[in-house]
Amino acid sequence: MTDFFAGEIATELLKMLFKISHKSCMCKTSADSLITSINELLPIIQEIKFSGVELPAMRQVQLDRLSENLREGLELARKVLASNRWNVYKNLQLARKMERLEKNVWRFVNGPMQAHVLADVHHLRFQMAESFDRLENSAKRVEQRLGAMNIGVGSGGWMEETVKRVEVEKERWETSLVNLLGVGMEVGKRKVKEMVIGREDLGAVGICGIGGSGKTTLANEICRDDEVRSHFQNRILSLTVSQSPNLEQLRANIWRFVSGSDFVAEGVNDVITKWNPQFNLRIGPRMLVVLDDVWSLSVLEQLIFRVPGCKTLVVSRFKFPTVLSDTYEVELLKGEEAISLFCLSAFGQKSVPPAADANLVKQIVNECKGLPLALKVIGASLRDQPEMYWASAKKRLSKGEPICESHESKLLDRMAISIQFLSKKVRECFLDLGCFPEDKKIPLDVLINMWVEIHDLDEEEAFAILVELSDKNLLTLVKDARAGDLYSSYYEISITQHDVLRDLAIHLANHGNVNERKRLLMARREAEVPKEWVRSADLPFHAQIVSIHTGEMGEMEWFQMDFPKTEVLIVNFSANEYFLPPFIDNMPNLRALIVINYSTQNATLHNFSVFSDLANLKSLWLEKVSVAQLTESTIPLKNLQKISLILCKINNSLDQSVIDLAQIFPSLSQLTIDHCDDLIKLPLSICRMHSLKSLSITNCPNLKEIPTNLGNLRFLQILRLYACPTLKMLPSSICELVSLKYLDISQCINLKSLPEKMGKLSMLEKIDMRECSEIWKLPASVESLESLRSVICDEEVSWLWKEVRKNNLHVQVAEEQFNLDWLDE
Q: For residue 273, is pLDDT > 60?
């Protein structure tokens, strides 16, 4: 507290010294000198006062002495002001005391304080080298921002108008960022191009720099450069490695690219290990492999394929001199470039507007230390905020921290300003993003389901929060080319987040006692349950969300833990065999369960019996697993409303001879089956699931048959049969779906026709039938589709729909889209 009192005393003393300077002739010289010295001291004292930093013991003692001198000076000044001018002897004594006070303050200013300044300069240089050390990954898509929502505009409504803005905003931000980086970007681009295409003798080269400094932006510019693309004949492969890489999958992807083979057999890594490129592959076309976010030398050594004609560009925080022939180090932004980038994010223009405090803007820009990500995120958080908010933010950014604190904490405490003034509900949603693994796309469907269940939101409000977070550059929305209209599946939209923002969410979530945390998270993939959890397992964990990230786990590797309040469990793993955590039994309030396997192969799940007590479960997401038979005895999920099976092996688990879906899931309203290649036909029991409102069977290449009684689903509103190429016929009973509003049969390339009585679908609003090349005519009954307002189709059949005599019918000719992004997952 000494700094507080010293500051108050110095301020009061300064006021009195001005009075003494005008009143007392004997003390005027000393008073003027003291005014000069205290004016130099006061800003330093004020900075210490507002920093909240505890000073080292030696400095604290010296500050105590200064405080005592200033306190004595204050008493002396009061005596001088109170002294009668005719009392010459007393005034002479007071003048001598003022001289002694002046010398004491002068000695401090020119002695210990100068040494402190030198020490601080040294510390500042050290901090400048480390202050952003834990910023991770790249800013490759932080530039994307969704525009403000436009509720109810256009044919697709609020969701369509919002998502349509993504690509425009992305292009604008990427172009602006490159332009703003100016000379620095051009210099970096020229140097990297020289390494990549100008030096044939360099096999592996690198781009390095601190996290968020623009490394990936520069690498993306290289990949988009016309000269580079021409040099490599567009043969460029870009992969993200991350801190927890799946080496098998990464090596397989590179093998496919280098060898030109689309087939990778089991045990491919053994083949790659033994393969000698010198004898098995002749010099072919030039190729460029870009490895982004590389953290480990041992990992990098396994990912560099020294193939004739193949060059590797490594993007990392580190230089790896033993592996890379040459490395370009990205420089941070300086001067006007930093101000321009900040202003674009904060004001929507490249300069400080006249109404803004230019000095305050520069001070905040200086606190960002030239880091593009910090400039953009902090700028966006200050946009449209009052000046007092800006002043408060500047003070928080400039707070000093003890040198012994970790560099990660320094960075994250700075970045935390970006979310501090979000509303409570939006802030909670941001913190939920820390539950998912780094460098992985988060399916929007998973996130929306989570937020609806635990934050008491409806889907529209949840999406609006997502837009707000995107507007503030706290996440990035990535959309499929098909997504964005009113009936789009949320599965077609995913979320990415820069690792520093994910780390921020984890950092804030991990405060407090582990048993009392609202979110219990495993930040990185680990081989076992964290020891902190095991040590605290004697007491219940009160977390609302639990997120696990492990490799293969057997029954004996788990511990019994009690989770009486948990509502969401996220199980992330990478393995071929996985024993579900037995403590799921101890989650009586579990409402959403997400199980995602990041291995290259489908995992076999064991311990399905844990589902037996999940009476409150409402949402289930299973990804890249082999689904066990769902028998009545093991899964009485009476309240389950949503099931999503993504990239799963069904293994006859939905067969009607094994399971009666209508009986086991009486409340199910949404069923999604996507990329399940062993699904041949849907079970008849689906037709008795009368609560079903949305049925999505997509990207299932072997689906041949739809139940003939599907028309019994009287409440079904959305039917997606997208990309089911072996499906040849729709049952006529589809015409009995009286509540159907949306029908998607796109990319069903062998579908021969639409049902003749299709006109009975009086509620149908939209049809998507792009790339249905076998459908050459329409049934006459389509004239009776009274609610139909939108059709998406190929040009060859668009004229048929345009002849339908409906004034409000919009016919959209679709462009062919090919999206294999899911393969990277």
A: no
